[in-house]
Every structure is written in C-alpha cells, then in structure tokens.
C-alpha cells in the first residue's frame, strides 16, 4: 500500500498520474475508430508530424505550443489527404512523405537552435516532469470535445467506419465526419504527447482498442472497454515508470503490450476449448466400409 | 404503397465517367424509373459498378449530365465481399444504420427498433436481430443489407452483385424477394455476372462494356451478337420454357501429346 501512496507525496507525480490516466483513456477511446478504420498508420504518422510543430513552438513561442502544434497537426492531416487524393501515391506513401518530413524538420529545428537534451528526449519518449496545470486543463478540454463529437456523431461515425460507401449513398457527409475525426485525433495526440511521447503515442492508440476488440463483439462495449484499458495502462505504467526510473511513455506502452499478450493468450485458449467442446458434441462422421 | 411514378428518378444524359485520368464509361444514356427492375450485365471491368455509383451520385460525370428527381431517396446494397464481417456490430445495429442521417442521439428509439424488427421479420430474419453479423449465412447477410436498405423506404434500390457468392437457392430467394419489392412499387437496379439468372427473373437488362451495348427485355438483348460485343466471346443462346439460355460456344479441347 505504501508503494502506491508514497509517490503521491510528490506534486509532479500527482499531476503525471492524472495526465497519464486521462491520456490513456482518451487515446483508448479514439483508438477504437482508428483501429476499426485501419488508420493505425495515420495515428503513427500524425504523431511524428505534430513533433515538427511542437519543436517549432518550443523554440519560438512555447506557451502557445498546443495551438501551434495543433494547427500544424491539422495542416499535416489535410496535406496527407490532399496528397493521397491528388496523386496516385496512395495514403500510406502520402503519410510517409508528409509526416517524416515534418519529423525531420522538428529534429533539425531542435538541433540548430539549441534546446536539445531533455526537452527533445521528453518529446520523443514522454515525461512526467514539468507538467503544468494548463496542460491538464487542455487535456480535459480535448477529452470533453472528443466525448461530445462521439456522442453527437455516434451514428455517423459508426456508419462511416463500417461502410463509408453506403453511408455516403445514404446521405451521410462522410468527408465532414472523417475531417472531424482527424481533428479529434490530432488534438488527442497533441495533448497526450508530453506524457506518452511522439514515438509511443501510436501504440496507445492501437493497443487498448485491439485488446477491447478481442474481448467483445459489441461496438458500444468496445468503446467502454478500450477507454478503461487505456486509462488502466496509464495509471499502472506511471507507477512502474516511477519505480523503474524509465520514461513514462515507454512503461505505459510496455504495460499495454503485456495486457495485450495476456488477453491474446486467454482468448486463444478460450477459443480452442470452445472448439474442442463443439467437436465433442458434433455428430460422428460416417465411415466408409471397405 | 403509392402508385409508382413513371417519370425518371435518375437520368444519365450522354454521361462519361471514370477515375482519375481513366474513363470507364463513355456517353451513357440511361433513364431509371420507379417501374424498372433492371439487371446490368457485363464482364469484369466493364463499368457496372461505375454505373451504379453514377446512379447513386457517389461519382460525378466527367462529361454529360446526371439529373435526379429532387426528393429522390436511394438505398444501396454493397457486394458482400467488400464488407468487414468481423466488425463489432449486431444485425440490429447494422440495420439501424439506415436511420443515421440527421440523427443526433447515439441511441435508437423504441419506435426505430420496432420498425427495424418489422422489416427484419418481413425478410424472415427477425430472430437473428441480436446476433453478430459474422454468424449469418450468405443469404442472411444479403437479407440483412436488404433490411437496412428497406428501412430507408427508398424509391430506388441499387444492388451490387447481390447474387455473387451465394448458392442457387439463395440466389432464387434473393431474386424473388426483389421481384416482390418491385411489384410493391420500388425501382430496382442490380449488377451481375449471372446472365441466365437475370434472363429468368428480370424484365429489363442493360448490357455494358465501357458503354451501353444494348438495353431491353432479355429476349431482345440476349442474342449472340450483343453478347459477343458485351463479353468479347462467342456464346450460344438456346431457348428453354420460352426464356433465352446462354451457353458457352463449344471449343473442343486439343489433345496433348
């Protein structure tokens, strides 16, 4: 019990714990749409793209980094869509070009104008040090926004995720719904970036949703489970990060990966046992007499 | 149901369309009415799905005009092969997607669920409403999508390859079901590779191969010359119980060795 209470005596840990738990919940929540749409690579790419904007704002106007990097992320998402639509490259190549260029720009800015070291490493792998109240407020604001978007666009998001062509034919404005999802995704990555880190955010978008998918066949339950798994990974990962002395993002992702392996093992065993029971109850096969 | 309107629901006037720089359909003229029960036939890559996308308004013409009735309500049934059957939704959730447009609340009302159940009952799969979509057979999957389409109460129902990948009995069931819907005043257009099935069930065929080769009743359209222009292969047309039946021309296999 002391192991749980002792770190809470530090203000930085309290803030880190809040941000990590909420970040896990937010990424788990949005991750359901990302995984079911097969957009995991976009999440990965966008986090790298946002790093460019984050670096630029850290150097020139650090207080406005959420705004600047957020706009940068949204611009990257629009650029990806535009490149993918107007050329024959395909979305994966467009993501590769736009986002890696943005990441490279971020690294170049950090290297050229100083400020490398902790700020640079923290942006890449996440850190709980120096979390401000403003960051917590931004995170909560984005959570409320994401919740509102999913609540008021639940049916449109579900339909366009399942079958975008039929949704379009049924009068749903698919481009607007997808645009809205990209905005929510960009903002979610941005506000969780400080704790989880650029290189690891994509994992937290995918792992909780995949774990939830293995546990349920219901879309509504998958949303709830993924949110719970994400927040639990954030919470447990933060404690382990404190005791192991490693960056918070790495430990949160490792906890997620461990949960994934456990659930994969359990669901595989359960499926096998169901198959054996089904075989036992199946009618005996006819045999051919010689 | 109200008496069907004979004015065109969708009119394609000299329409050419395609994707990026490649034109798939050239100078298509086609009027679709609520009284139509039409099969679009042609080889792979002939532009059947492109024609459906034009009728749906999902694809804009590169040239020509697409004119639709202002209050037109269209429903679309996709190919079963294009669907992710592991997607986490039940039959009921899938059918209720038809009631997405302009809806704000995430949950469905009791009346919406009752309407959905009534349509599922009409199609004989009401008892499967709470099943996951992966647990359905091919015919049940087709009925589920039909239920979703019917819940929109469309004037025009468009189906992409509704008879592909299902067994003969299911194919007959689906076509009879569509015949019923048509007799109740719904315009229907479907694409298919299945010439004989269409000849037996549909009153009107459109043969497509980059352009409209021919359109009319099966007896008018299913002729060796139209089929050769459409499919690029010689086929023989026989008659069975007053209906045209297509058979491949006999090409004796060469003996080897």
What does this structure look like?
Chain A is globular, with a radius of gyration of 21 Å. In chain A, α10 crosses α11 (198-215). Chain A has 290 residues and is an all-alpha fold. Chain A has helices at 2-5, 11-36, 40-60, 65-86, 91-112, 118-125, 133-152, 154-162, 164-169, 174-196, 198-215, 219-244, 248-281. By secondary structure, chain B is of the alpha/beta class. Helix content of chain B is 30%, strand content 28%. Chain B contains 8 helices and 11 strands. Chain B has helices at residues 48-56, 91-96, 110-122, 138-150, 168-183, 195-201, 218-221, 224-231; strands at residues 8-19, 22-33, 37-41, 63-68, 74-77, 156-160, 187-192, 204-208, 212-216, 235-240, 243-248. In chain B, the strands form 3 sheets. Chain B has a 6-stranded mixed sheet, with helices on both faces. A 3-stranded antiparallel sheet of chain B has the order 2-1-4, covered by helices on one side. The radius of gyration of chain B is 19 Å and the shape is globular. The termini of chain B are far apart. In chain B, 40% of the residues are buried. Residues 253-257 of chain B have low confidence and may be disordered. At the A-B interface, α7, α8 and α9 of A face β5 and α2 of B.
């Amino acid at each position: 019990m002391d192991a749980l209470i002792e770190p809470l005596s530090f203000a930085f840990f309290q803030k880190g714990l809040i941000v990590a738990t909420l970040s896990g919940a937010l990424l788990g929540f949005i991750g359901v749409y990302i995984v079911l749409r097969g957009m995991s690579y976009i999440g990965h790419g966008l986090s790298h793209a946002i790093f460019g904007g984050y670096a630029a704002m850290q150097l020139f106007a650090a207080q406005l980094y959420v705004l600047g990097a957020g706009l940068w992320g949204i611009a990257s998402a629009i650029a990806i869509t535009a490149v993918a639509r107007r050329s024959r490259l395909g979305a994966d190549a467009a993501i590769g070009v736009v986002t890696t260029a943005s990441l490279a720009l971020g690294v170049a800015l950090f290297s050229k104008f100083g400020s490398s070291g902790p700020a640079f490493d923290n942006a890449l792998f996440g850190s709980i040090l120096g979390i401000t109240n403003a960051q917590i407020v931004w995170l909560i604001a984005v959570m409320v926004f994401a919740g509102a978007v999913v609540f008021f666009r639940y049916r449109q998001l579900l339909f366009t995720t399942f079958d975008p062509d039929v949704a379009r034919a049924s009068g749903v404005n698919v481009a607007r719904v997808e645009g809205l999802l990209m905005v929510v995704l960009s903002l979610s990555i941005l506000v969780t970036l400080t704790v989880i880190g650029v290189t690891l955010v994509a994992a937290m978008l995918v792992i909780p949703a995949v774990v939830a998918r293995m546990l349920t066949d219901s879309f509504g339950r998958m949303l709830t489970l993924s949110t719970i798994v994400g927040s639990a990974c954030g919470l447990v990962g933060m404690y382990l990060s404190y005791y192991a002395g490693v960056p918070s993002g790495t430990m949160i992702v490792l906890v997620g990966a461990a949960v994934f392996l456990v659930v994969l093992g359990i669901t595989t065993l359960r499926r096998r046992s169901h198959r054996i029971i089904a075989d036992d109850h199946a009618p005996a096969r006819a045999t051919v007499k010689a | 149901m109200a008496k069907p309107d004979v004015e065109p629901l969708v009119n394609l006037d000299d329409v050419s369309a395609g994707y990026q720089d490649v034109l798939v359909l050239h100078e298509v003229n086609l009027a679709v009415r609520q009284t139509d029960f039409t099969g679009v036939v042609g080889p792979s890559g002939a532009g059947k799905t492109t024609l459906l996308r034009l009728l749906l308004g999902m694809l804009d013409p590169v040239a020509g005009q697409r004119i639709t009735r202002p209050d037109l309500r269209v429903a679309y049934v996709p190919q079963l092969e294009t669907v992710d059957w592991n997607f986490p939704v039940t039959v009921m959730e899938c059918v209720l997607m038809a009631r997405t447009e302009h809806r704000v609340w995430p949950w469905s009302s009791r009346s919406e669920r009752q309407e959905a159940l009534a349509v599922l009952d009409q199609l004989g799969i009401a008892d499967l409403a709470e099943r996951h979509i992966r647990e359905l057979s091919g015919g049940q999957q087709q009925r589920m999508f039909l239920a979703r389409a019917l819940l929109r109460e469309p004037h025009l129902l468009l189906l992409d390859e509704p008879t592909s990948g299902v067994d003969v009995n299911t194919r007959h069931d689906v076509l009879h079901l569509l015949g019923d819907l048509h007799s109740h005043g719904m315009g229907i257009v479907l694409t298919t590779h299945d010439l004989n099935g269409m000849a037996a069930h549909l009153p009107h065929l459109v043969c497509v191969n980059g352009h409209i080769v021919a359109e009319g009743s099966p007896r008018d359209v299913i002729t060796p010359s139209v089929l050769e222009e459409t499919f690029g292969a010689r086929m023989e047309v026989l008659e069975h119980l007053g209906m045209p039946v297509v058979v491949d021309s006999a090409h004796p296999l060469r003996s080897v060795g």
